[in-house]
Design a protein that fits this description.
This protein is α/β, with parallel strands linked by helices. About 30% of the residues lie in helices and about 15% in strands. It contains 11 helices and 14 strands. Helix 3 packs parallel to helix 6. The radius of gyration is 19 Å and the shape is globular. The two termini are about 30 Å apart. About 50% of the residues are buried. The structure holds flavin mononucleotide (FMN).
Length: about 350
């Protein structure tokens, strides 16, 4: 399509978007200890409803998928009711919102969870590094328990139930977080997946979990067009490493390319190799590019046909009216990284808009 810019209307199968700007999923650590999102999350998200699409912070499909302090889940009635208020507020403001499912696998500290279940992963490989807990301060990450083969259908079932819960809560769709070193990426990557069964070893086995979770989410949603996926090939975050990410991600994307998904969301974390160029031709559907985009680089990416949507993280966090600021060339607020995960309203719902009438 000629002359596509950030302000051009977009379309996922069955869903119109006002523009080509997506608000990135961002964990904000403001939920209650029982996994219920905070009251002021409605305000945070509805302030940003001018995005073409909002993708929520990572939401655990079940308590065993929680890992960080004050992060939300979507497994019970209280959590679903709270999410319903949030989707309602976004829709009232003319926005669209997908729920991101984040099962952290081994990147979890028990003090941050309301379940006694141990953190799980494809193999019992501990991640280097520490995590913040409100009760104990910084803590080493524990060694996870390797999932038994017979348990895997149950984990996939948690994503199915979460999909149904998210649609009941009014979300327009759901995104599988298969990036940043969390459970799905732990299955994809050779250092965290040392299994010798059908879910480990050769690439077709390592991608199996992600493909089966996506298929289950599509079935639960009743339509693949309500289901997206995020990947971050070769991103080392959370002590993850794959011996051959080009093979892993080209094989994965070819395998899911014809499911009819809402979109493929790719976070490029290093300049080379260029996974946008590599993966776009392999995926038959909308392509969303993420990682350090500005207005100019986003417009250029769209104009070149390199992506259909551009995903903005920190810029949306700090600029609730980012769409207007880009459209009118207004100056941007800077983000304050000390309040990213700090809890409370500061640095969450108090970033100013450029014009009083925009919210
Ligand atoms: C505070 C913060 C929290 C984040 N949490 C998540 C998350 O929950 N899920 C996820 O997929 N990515 C998460 N990310 C990564 C963003 O979605 C995005 O990929 C990244 O910030 C790069 O985009 P940017 O350069 O436009 O910020 C987070 C980023 C930030 C800054």
């Amino acid at each position: 399509m000629a002359n596509v810019t950030l302000s051009t209307q977009g379309r996922f199968d069955g869903l119109e978007t006002k523009n080509r700007m997506i608000m990135a999923p961002m964990t904000r650590s403001r939920a209650l200890p029982n996994g219920v999102p905070s009251d002021f999350a409605s305000e945070y998200y509805s302030q940003r409803a001018s995005a073409g699409l909002i993708i929520t912070e990572g939401i655990a499909p079940s308590a065993v998928g929680l890992g960080y302090a004050r992060t939300p889940a979507i497994e019970n009635a209280d959590q679903i009711a709270a999410w319903k208020k949030i989707t309602g507020a976004v829709h009232e403001n003319g926005g669209r919102i997908f729920a991101q499912f984040m099962h952290v696998g081994r990147i979890a500290h028990p003090a941050n969870r309301y379940t006694d279940a141990e953190p799980v992963s494809p193999s019992a490989v501990k991640a280097a590094g520490q995590m913040w807990t409100d009760a104990l301060g910084m803590q080493d990450l524990p060694t996870p328990r390797a999932l038994e083969l017979r348990e895997i259908p149950g984990v996939i079932g948690e994503y199915s139930r979460a999909t149904k819960n998210a649609l009941a809560a009014g979300f327009d769709g759901v995104e599988l977080h298969s990036a940043s070193g969390y459970l799905p990426m732990q299955f994809l990557s050779s250092n965290t997946n040392q299994r010798t069964d059908a879910y480990g070893g050769p690439v077709n086995n390592r991608i199996r979990f992600v493909v089966e979770v996506l298929e289950a989410m599509c079935e639960a949603a009743g339509s693949a067009s309500k289901v997206g996926i995020k990947i971050s090939p070769a991103m080392p975050f959370n002590d993850i490493h794959d011996a051959n990410p080009v093979e892993t991600y080209t094989t994965l994307v070819k395998s899911i390319g014809s499911l009819g998904l809402a979109y493929l969301h790719v976070l490029q974390s290093a300049p080379e190799p260029n996974y946008f160029k590599m993966l776009r031709p392999l995926f038959d559907g909308p392509f969303a590019a993420a990682g350090g985009f500005t207005k100019d680089s986003g417009d250029a990416m769209l104009a070149s046909g390199g992506a259909d949507f551009i995903v903005y993280g920190k810029l949306f966090l700090a600029n609730p009216d980012l769409v207007l600021r880009f459209a009118e060339g207004l100056p941007l607020n800077e983000w304050d990284s000390t309040t990213f995960y700090a809890g409370g309203p500061k640095g969450y719902i108090d970033y100013p808009t450029a014009k009083p009438s925009t919210v």
